[in-house]
Amino acid sequence: MSVEAAAAQFQTGTFQFRPIGNGLINDTFQVDYDNGVTLVLQRINAHSFPQPVHILRNYQRMERWLEDHPGKTRIPRLCRTINGKAWWEDATGRIWRATGWIPNSSSPHQPDSMLMTANAVREYALFIRAFHGIDLRSWDIVIPQFHNLMQRYRQFENAMENAPLFRLMKATHVIASLRERSHYLAFYEEMILHPSDYPDRLQHHDCKVNNLLFNSSHDAVLAVADLDTVMPGKFFSDLGDMVRTMACTVSEESSEWEKVGVNIDRYEKILSVFKDCLDDILTPSEKAHLHEAGRLVTYMQALRYTTDFLQKDIYYKTSFPEQNLHRAFNQLILLERLEEIG
């Protein structure tokens, strides 16, 4: 089923479309209709999200909460089809959804200033604060065990048992380095065993700069986007992803290993802004372990990239055969640099 068929479900009349973004999961398009309406149209990746309707139901829950608690954060408006539905299912069973286009907005790949870093962290922290108090029991879990480090490690071990020999050989160094770091599993288990010290909160779970919509001058955030993985989680998930993606000196896509490192000024800014925004919400245990967040998430991401490589690249999009292995090695180097910090 074509993009044209999906776009025709959300507005009438003629239109033009073009692919946008560089996400590794969903296919995203900007659709400009002749009636002046512009939408962001997405085909949800059914392999990554086996129950995509859960994403849309959670989105509706967020919209209802924000209607009752206005002004705390902004998310793109979920658009209805011409038949009044929140999504459209094509003849092959794939789910399409549309959100409102926010004019004069952009999503930079990396922060280009300390101000942008601070604004990005503040917006993600305010996103957590905005949903503080929401009933987590009714939430649809889009990806079960998404940031469960124990589960990610088990998947990694299972992938090794079933991987083709040539992929195992190529990943030998990365595998050994990941296995050496079992202490991260112990700390994660400590959090699970003490929920009052490490409570669940609604987390974004994908806190990259390019999942925020900035104004044209990049000095203010207009909206928090890419909300597919919004689920209950522990404090380290969002903070750790901000460290992993904003404090790094090069992108996770870089194979220039000697350039992979930590921008210490950005790192310290991320932790300080996050703590300041949520100081009255975070527990003493969480505040004492803020430095662990970046390490945990970077370790987890290295596990995930390695697992996907061993499983023949079934989750993340790739453009060359060993890209997921390169990504995993990049994250391991970043982890080593984070481990050198206090």
Describe the structure.
It holds the Pfam family APH. This is Aminoglycoside phosphotransferase domain-containing protein. InterPro entries: Aminoglycoside_PTrfase (IPR002575), Kinase-like_dom_sf (IPR011009). α4 runs parallel beside α11 and α8 runs antiparallel to α9. This protein has two domains: 99 residues, Phosphorylase Kinase, domain 1, CATH 3.30.200.20; 226 residues, Aminoglycoside phosphotransferase (APH), C-terminal lobe (Aminoglycoside 3'-phosphotransferase, Chain: A, domain 2), CATH 3.90.1200.10. It contains twelve helices and eleven strands.
User: How do the SSEs run, as a string of H and E?
Assistant: HEEEHEEEEHHHHHEEEEHHHHH
Classify the beta-strand content into a percent band.
5-15%
Name the assembly state.
single chain
State the CATH class of the largest domain. Alpha Beta
Gyration radius, in Å? 20 Å
Share of helix, binned:
40-55%
Tell me the structural class. Answer: alpha+beta
**Could you name the CATH topology of the largest domain?**
Aminoglycoside 3'-phosphotransferase, Chain: A, domain 2
Q: How would a crystallographer describe the biggest sheet?
A: 6 strands, antiparallel
Count of helix runs: 12
**The number of domains:** 2
Tags for this entry?
342 residues, alpha+beta, Phosphorylase Kinase, domain 1, Aminoglycoside 3'-phosphotransferase, Chain: A, domain 2, 2 domains, 3-stranded antiparallel beta sheet, 12 helices, globular
Summarize this structure briefly.
This protein has helices spanning 3-7, 52-68, 114-130, 149-162, 165-170, 172-179, 183-193, 236-246, 264-278, 284-288, 290-310, 323-339, and strands at 15-19, 27-33, 38-43, 78-79, 88-89, 95-100, 105-106, 201-203, 212-215, 221-224, 231-233.
